[in-house]
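Duplicate of #3305? Posting structure anyway:
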């Protein structure tokens, strides 16, 4: 099992961080921790387990994020995650969507720290891999520090050692999930204070992180940073992570190298009966800001042409056409991020 530290990670994002997205991000960084989309306990109890849990070993270190609030169900789901080989089981206590609230989990669990502690204990008793919690700093109008401090303290007593702190409140009524990622103000100092008060815990910070300078600043106060939408929309941000934050001596992959690796992966995917667009949709930010990038994206987001690609040769031809729009000699280097 991997022992890579969680210095930098990519947030679990519904409809985005599926196995194809994670494979793409892994071409950019070998050490960044990756997370699945949230998988509910119900999906694992009653659905196609392999469809939800299968991944490629190349994705490691990769964590499984679970959504649920029944300790026995979460323990069962955690055991499945460990059996599948995930390096970490993460409990979602931060999602504010009404659909998640109807299932009595996500951010609304912050109002029930004793229940979360029971869930964490059940999972820790069931598996040997780390069990972690991702949460907000408050819910609705509850903004005082004591609320999140007591939440973390209660869960820590159940044996959780790693907390991923999305440094915004979750507004459970009146805001969409998108608005919940933008409207409640970021209060990073709350996460810093948690680290000061619980120095023995691993505290990661999430929310609004868009560049290396912010990462450096946060890492002076907490143990790790989690990047969300920025890693998806501007994925080349991940290219320097290994060198900057893990001391890796391996060369930074160029955009072309990343693209060619994914091109081969997509060729295998379509020849196994998969849809090309299921992968390329995650790659559209690779050449953002590059001359010709718009034309490249236009080719690789054409649903009709993606559906028509049934062989690796057809995949190669589409990528060659897309690359014809690029002027690589003008490609900026990653420090321009």
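Output from current build:
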């Amino acid at each position: 099992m991997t022992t890579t530290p969680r210095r930098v990670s990519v947030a679990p994002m519904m409809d985005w961080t599926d196995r194809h997205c994670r494979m793409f991000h892994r071409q950019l960084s070998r050490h960044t921790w990756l997370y699945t989309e949230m998988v509910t306990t119900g999906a694992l109890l009653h659905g196609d387990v392999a469809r939800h849990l299968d991944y490629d070993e190349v994705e490691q270190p990769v964590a499984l994020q679970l959504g649920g609030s029944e300790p026995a169900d979460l323990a069962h789901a955690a055991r499945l995650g460990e059996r599948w080989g995930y390096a970490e089981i993460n409990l979602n206590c931060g999602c504010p969507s009404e659909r998640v609230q109807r299932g009595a989990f996500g951010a609304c669990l912050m109002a029930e720290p004793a229940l979360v502690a029971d869930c964490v204990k059940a999972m820790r008793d069931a598996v040997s891999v780390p069990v972690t919690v991702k949460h907000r700093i408050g819910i609705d109008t509850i903004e005082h520090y004591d609320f999140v401090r007591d939440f973390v303290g209660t869960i820590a007593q159940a044996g959780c050692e790693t907390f991923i702190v999305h440094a915004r409140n979750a507004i459970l009524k009146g805001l969409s999930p998108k608005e919940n990622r933008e409207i409640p103000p970021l209060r990073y100092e709350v996460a810093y204070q948690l680290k000061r008060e619980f120095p023995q815990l691993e505290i990661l910070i999430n929310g609004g992180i868009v560049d290396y300078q912010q990462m450096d600043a946060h890492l002076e106060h907490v143990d790790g940073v989690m990047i969300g939408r920025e890693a998806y929309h501007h994925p080349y941000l991940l290219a320097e992570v290994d060198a900057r934050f893990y001391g890796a001596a391996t060369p930074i992959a160029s955009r072309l190298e990343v693209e060619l690796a994914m091109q081969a992966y997509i060729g295998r995917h379509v020849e196994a009966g998969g849809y090309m667009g299921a992968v390329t949709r995650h790659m559209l930010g690779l050449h953002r800001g590059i001359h010709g990038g718009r034309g490249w994206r236009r080719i690789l987001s054409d649903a009709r042409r993606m559906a028509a690609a049934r062989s690796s040769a057809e995949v190669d031809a589409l990528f060659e056409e897309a690359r014809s729009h690029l002027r690589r000699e003008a490609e900026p280097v990653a420090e321009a991020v």
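Confirmed duplicate; merging threads. The longest helix spans residues 255-271. The chain has two domains: 8-246, 255-328.
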